[in-house]
Hints:
Blueprint: E1 7-11, E2 17-18, E3 34-38, E4 70-71, H1 76-82, E5 86-87, E6 91-96, H2 102-115, E7 120-124, H3 129-139, E8 146-150, H4 154-164, E9 168-172, H5 189-206, E10 209-215, E11 234-239, E12 246-254, E13 262-268, E14 271-274, H6 278-282, E15 293-300, E16 303-315, E17 323-326, H7 330-344, E18 351-357, H8 369-381, E19 389-391, E20 394-395, E21 401-402, H9 407-416, E22 421-425, E23 438-442, H10 445-453
Parallel strand pairs: 6-10, 6-11, 7-8, 7-9, 9-10, 15-19, 17-18, 19-22, 22-23
Antiparallel strand pairs: 1-2, 1-3, 4-5, 11-12, 12-13, 13-14, 15-16, 16-18, 20-21
The structure holds thymidine-5'-diphosphate and magnesium ion (MG).
Amino acid sequence: MAKGKNTAFFCKECGYESSKWLGQCPACREWNSFVEELVVKTESGGRKPLLSGEHRPESINQIKTSEEERSKTGFAELDRVLGGGIVSGSLTLIGGDPGIGKSTLLLQVCKNLTDAGKRVLYISGEESLQQIKLRADRIGTFSDRLQLFCETNLEMIEQVLKTEKPDAAVIDSIQTIFHGDVASAPGSVSQVRESTNVFMQIAKTQNISIFIVGHVTKEGVVAGPRVLEHMVDTVLYFEGDRHASYRILRGVKNRFGSTNEIGVFEMCGEGLREVKNPSEYMLNGRPEHASGSIVACAIEGTRPMLAEIQALVCRTNFGMPRRTAAGTDYNRVNLLMAVLEKRLGLKMGEYDAYVNVAGGMRIVEPALDLGIVLALISSYRDLVIDDKTIVFGEVGLAGEVRAVNMAQQRVNEAEKLGFNRCIMPEVSMKGIDGSKIQLVGIKNVFDLTNIIMKH
Ligand code: TYD
Ligand code: MG
């Protein structure tokens, strides 16, 4: 860029600002993420802002709150992730890879909201009206209360929002929106930040619930949603394998509810469909009487989820054994294999091991440890574990099986899906009611071998 102009360098990943170019961002440790952008400083003309009568610090007990007003999105899965529905005047960011289904989800939310009598404005900077209509035709029939507007100029959008005053609005996507006064290109850190700031103000002052779509971009000049995370009220990430049909909506930040909640959806011909019982979905197509397969119970947010863990342990042909972990933490798998080698004397060093959480979901909860260990032993010894058995528990370095939280919920979920035996940490067994299921408490991995041997 030309000399003499006021420029600064921004990290594309986290928005860190620096006056010089840096190879590595000191804030997020990302390499080669700095881009130069123009910054325009506005002159305040030397006037100082003055405190007016109303605007003073107030005592905390004098502040009145009202129960925040929430509207249902028509998707129970989304409502739960949002903490019970859309809070009016909130700003929500939905991030995700391109093509994952963000526009589809939001268009369906628009349909549900307008069907419930709300007025919604869908602003698209990416697609033409015809393209949106084509997608809408796949989803169903819409009410006239949904209005579409194709625009990328921030000031135009601001005017439209202020004159139309819808109950909710969707901005698809933030990376296409630009403000004429900001010199850098649409999608750059300063543009994206400026636009988000404006939307935040509109949301709060006009009481419009606004959803912003943000594409996750690893490479390229476009600033990702991470830059905005701290500016918005709620951050949701839409993830999943593009080749598999299920999608997971994960709450990362929520000023109006808890995070860690997930919602599960499935992409079908008519848009997204909720998956009310993900455990059943995850266990679809499970092999029968196969060694190295076991069902484990993990907790995502407040809800238990069963997943099949598969392990394949076979003799290595090279000096260096190969290990892979799909759907779970690779280092954790290595650690558990070291525990098995040391505590149970299994010669894992001579074997390749492949561990997979079937169903394509990524689960990194410590409670999965015992499942991984069992699957590994089962494959190593080529022993089949009874397929009505479920397992959960954390494994420590000494081979001890440690307590996990929410044991009762896990047992209940297993019962619900027809399992009849639950292998769990002995310390978590106190007070657990499992009338229809046999509970087997274990203290360490030695007990485990006794349990599988019997079958
Ligand atoms: P889209 O919502 O456009 O993704 P994003 O906005 O996150 O980029 O979703 C695009 C994908 O979803 C596309 O590959 C087609 C698929 N899809 C279906 O399978 N069924 C449907 O009913 C719709 C509307 C889309
Ligand atoms: Mg889209």
